[in-house]
Amino acid sequence: TPWPFKTTRELPHVKNVGASGPEKYTEAFIKKQIEEFNLGKRHLANMMGEDPETFTQEDIDRAIAYLFPSGLFDKQARPMMKHPTEIFPEQRKIQWGEDGRPFHFLFYTGKPSYYSLMHVSMLSVINNVSSQSSTCYSRGACQDLLSLLMFSQNLAGSRWLTKIELEEMLLEKLSDDDYSRFIHLLQKLVALPCTDIEEEYIQKFSKEVPVQLQKVVIDPLQFDERGVAFSTGEGKRKTARATAVIYDNGTGKITVNGIDILHYFPVLQDREQLLFPFQFLGRIGKHDMVCTVSGGGRSAQAGAIRLASAKALRSFVTEKEVEFMRQAGLLTADPRVKERKKPGQEGPRRKFTWKKR
Amino acid sequence: MAAPSAVGLSRRLRAWLPRIMPVRWSRYDPSYLEPEVNKELYQKPPEKLTEEEREQMELKAVRPIKAAPPTLSSSVFSDPMVSKFTNMMMKNGNKVLARSLMSQTLEAIKRKQLEKYHKAPENEKEAIECNPYVIFHQALKNCQPIIGLSSITRGGKTYQVPVPLTDNRKRFLAMKWLITECRENKHRRTMMPEKLSQELLLAFNNEGPIIKKKHVLHKMAEANRAYAHFRWW
């Protein structure tokens, strides 16, 4: 290893020296770890009686979970065997040569990769694009590309990299101001016409938002002995779990755990919540409902039944109305739960009384 | 459906470690949009939508939507202003009591207005407003201050600087003044619905202590006009 760079193991042990930052991993060290990992993978496959050639990471995870069962709550604390590039964080190679002269011309800014990204690469891209656009406008083929881009970037469920992701990519710490400037530059770039050429470059900085709810499968209607159509739905809210069965050709009667809603939910707000999906679709007197609910409190049970009935109603209703129900917030499970109490505090947020002495 | 916050939670926990824990976080991912409960907006045919509404609809079609809170409903009886006021009146999470007080207040307003209506001569009957919701909204509107004061310290002295208020802040101040006025400055034995209905009717007619408080605030702001340049936002 060149002279300014040694791992802590190679240096002679010096006492009373302050911490020199996180441990630095040499390339040789990482390579050794990768070899050990591959060897260990083959041993593990042999142990489990599977083919070493086709042993994937999921198989490794399953094998480790089987061989070393752990009841620890934190998933990161359990025994794991992952590829060394996932465990050891990526580190920058040394940025200066043997004579001490840095390789990158922006080294003394403190954030060479960030500034080079902003000024050198982006500027070159913008110049390319504006030179292309002057030729493009003359051909008059730009409007479609512009609209395509607006759609592909803003609306089709893609987002820019977050600050943490950008820091990981550049291996440098950034401030919020730097990050916001970066995003502004990206947006300006997208707004320019004829960026079709540089779309690959932009795609490096954008990520797909995870799968949308359009993929949910709606169960078809079932028919009971009397020939009446019915459908079931399940819902939950906080600790309450509910199942609802909605029958067609009804009079608007609603029964919860065998009790009429007027007796089960004496509070008006809960009954309003139960009727919300029906009122939204305009089907108040047309359906009968039988529900079972357990757990939670008064309001949580009402919310759980509301979600269950909304899910069951999807089978009775057109796709457009299902989309309207989703946009009204009827088909999303409320993720809010009671926040845990933290040590050193009296409650989830409240701190202990401050005493001066 | 996957839990909405599973992806973001690990990020946030990671952000906790050396740095400060962000306080205003929600269980929803930031990409979740607010639900729209009004039925009429969905029944509008697509030609009548404006540009903005069209864009909003397209955005909503792609993004996930938060669950509607238990206080929100598409029925004609749920009013967001009334719900907000009920929440502000609530003590120790006793929503049942707050809601019953609110309904008794509206009932009391209706009764008083009906009394006035039946006693009034024929030509004045149309001028009397009997709808308690209309009275409530109008009274709150009348109580909203236009300009507020904010304390700014310069050179050791604290000045009261006139400052424009946002809509939310105006509504909050109007409701807060109403409730504190009823809680503190009335006789101990009178019931809250009685006190509130009285105050609301006075505010509806632009009289009463809350309107006076608003005018006092405006006068103070006018008096401290000289310090308006201290504001930097």
UniProtKB/TrEMBL annotation, chain A:
Domain of life: Eukaryota
Region span, Disordered: 334-357
Keyword Nucleotide-binding found: no
Gene Ontology BP term (one): translation
Subcellular location: Mitochondrion
Alphabetically ordered keywords of this record: Mitochondrion, Ribonucleoprotein, Ribosomal protein, Transit peptide
Record's GO cellular component terms: mitochondrial inner membrane; mitochondrial small ribosomal subunit
GO terms for MF: RNA binding; structural constituent of ribosome
Keyword Ribonucleoprotein: yes
Pfam families linked to this entry: Ribosomal_S9 (PF00380)
UniProt record similarity statement: Belongs to the universal ribosomal protein uS9 family.
Record-given protein name: Small ribosomal subunit protein uS9m
Lineage summary: Eukaryota, Metazoa, Chordata, Craniata, Vertebrata
From TrEMBL, chain B:
Record's subcellular location: Mitochondrion
InterPro entries, A to Z: Ribosomal_uS7 (IPR000235), Ribosomal_uS7_dom (IPR023798), Ribosomal_uS7_dom_sf (IPR036823)
Residue intervals of the Small ribosomal subunit protein uS7 domain: 68-225
Pfam family, one: Ribosomal_S7
GO cellular component: mitochondrial inner membrane; mitochondrial small ribosomal subunit
SUPFAM superfamilies: Ribosomal protein S7
Any GO BP annotation: translation
Coiled-coil region: none
Family: Belongs to the universal ribosomal protein uS7 family.
Descriptive protein name: Small ribosomal subunit protein uS7m
Originating species: Malurus cyaneus samueli
